[in-house]
Structures are given as C-alpha cells and as structure tokens.
Amino acid sequence: MYAAKLHPAKRQAGQTRSVRPVRRRISLAAWIALAPMAATVLFAYLGTMLFTARVSLSFSRSLPTNTFAGVTQYVRLFQNDRWILSLQNLVIYGACFIAACLVIGLLLAIFIDQRVVAEGALRTVFLYPYAMSFVATGLVWQWILNPELGVQAVLQQMGFEHARFDWIVTQRFAIYTLVIATVWQASGLVMALLLAGLRGIDDEIWKAARLDGIPRWRVYASIVVPMLKTSLSTAFVLLFVMVVKLYDAVVAMTQGGPGTASEVPAKFIMDYLFNRANIGLASAASIVLLATVLAILAPFFYARSRAALKGDRA
C-alpha cells in the first residue's frame, strides 16, 4: 500500500538504488573472470618480452647474465650471413605463401559458393589439411617430394625417364617446396573465411547483375571481392602470423637445408638458443622479429580501426 502511494519519481529512485549493487556485483564478477587472462598477458607475454629484451642487451651465452653489452648483439646479428639469408628466405616464402593462399582460397570459396553437389563433403576435404600439424604436413610432403620415392620416381616409372622434380634437394628451389606444402595446408582456412563472407552478400546484387547482363566474373572482380575486404584482411593477418612462426615444417621437411638454403628466422633463433648456447644473440633475433611484426601489423590495425570509426560515424 505504502509503495503504491509513493510518488513515481521516488519509486524510480528507489529502483535505481536497488539496481546499482547488482550492477556492481556483475562488474566485479567480470573483472574476477578476466583476472587470470590479464595476469597471463602481463606476466607470461609482456614479462617474457621484457626479459628477452634485457637478455638481448647482455653478453649472455649459456645462461642469462647482467653484463650490459648495449647493441653489440644486434650488430653481430646483422653481420651474420645466416641471419641475413633467413630474412631473405622469409620474405620470399611469405610473399609466395600469402599470395598463393589468398588466390587458391578465394577460388575454392567461389567454387563452393556455386551450391555444388556434396558441398559439405568438399568443405571438409578442403579444410581437413589445416587440422594437421605442420610436422605431419612436412613429413608427408617430404615423402612426396623425395626424388627417390615421390613424384619424380613415379614419373620415371611411368616412362618419363628424364622427368625431374628434385626441388627439395636443390638449393635454389628448396624454399619453394615449403611454400607448396604449407599452401596445401592453409588454403582451406582461407576458403572457409572467404566462403563465410560470400554467404553474407545480399542476393539482390546477383539479381541486379543478371538483369544488367554483367558477366559473373566481372561481378566477382568489381563488386564481390571488394566487399570481402574484412574477410581478406583477417585471412592476411592469420597467414602473416603463420609466416613469422614458420619452424615445424622446415624442421620436418628440410632441416633448413640443403646447407642453409631454406633457413628461416625461427629456426635460426632455436638453433642459437639450444644448439649453439648463445641466448644473447637468439634474444636479439627474437626482438628484431617482434619489431618487424609490429611494424607491419600496427599500421594495418590502425588503418582498419580508423575505417571502422568512419563507418560508425557515417
């Protein structure tokens, strides 16, 4: 009775005061839930990066030391021919790998978007290689590309006696065998991302294109692909991360060889960290690799966030 006689403004104020403790409890619960992840980011990620940066400025060998060396390790790093070669290989590999994955993934996505028969089975087949580890992929393709067991041997047994496909043991082409193996593995992921984008495009666009008599390939090239920029940018970031992390496939397929022909930065770092007991140089290489990643991805994310803000204001 008394609550019913209260003035509406007083009744609303009382409800607001009762809601505030509930909101505080929800907010506190959210912060408690986020605490483990925040601690992981602060100590496991940022902490290890700062520790690596400190070690890179020392004369550390087998164990970390506090002997300050300035940029000596960085100077030694860029005087190391093996490191320079690994960077060159990474650029070649990255350009070929990302371009091939985007093109093949887009073509597969367009193919499946035609509502083909057994679409679900085809999606599974194309995406299945991505479920495999890079080690398994490397071993499989090492057998396929082996001159004595793989494609070359099969072609010669079929009567093509002069057929040669020995890239994996040829210094000039060894890095491209890594491209072949990893493109086979990662193209399905790009296909899945782009297919999701294609399925989100309004059917009215296709109806209008048919009415205007525009060829299907022209619609894809001029309208559909530009509309997939968000999916393409996501795929690019994921592929770029795979490029920087490339290690398992190298170890499984070529061990960085022949010689150092397929050396990459991650393998260089692991070799100097564990095999050559030079953690100072390995840490310097890690920091250079991290700085390179940030220098490429930071402007990318900044431009993407600016575009999103402009879209929200519009």
Automatic annotation (TrEMBL):
Question: Does Cell division count among this protein's keywords?
Answer: no
So where does this one cross the membrane?
28-53, 90-112, 124-144, 173-198, 219-244, 279-303
- Keywords from the UniProt entry: Cell membrane, Membrane, Transmembrane, Transmembrane helix, Transport
Q: Does the keyword DNA-binding apply?
A: no
Q: Which InterPro entries match?
A: ABC_transporter_permease (IPR051393), MetI-like (IPR000515), MetI-like_sf (IPR035906)
The record's subcellular location field reads: Cell membrane
SUPFAM superfamilies, alphabetized: MetI-like (SSF161098)
Q: What membrane topology was assigned to this protein in its record?
A: Multi-pass membrane protein
**What's the domain of life for this entry?**
Bacteria
Residue span, ABC transmembrane type-1 domain:
87-300
The family classification in the record reads: Belongs to the binding-protein-dependent transport system permease family.
Name the record gives this protein: ABC transmembrane type-1 domain-containing protein
What species does this protein belong to? Paraburkholderia hiiakae
Q: Lineage of the source organism?
A: Bacteria, Pseudomonadati, Pseudomonadota, Betaproteobacteria, Burkholderiales
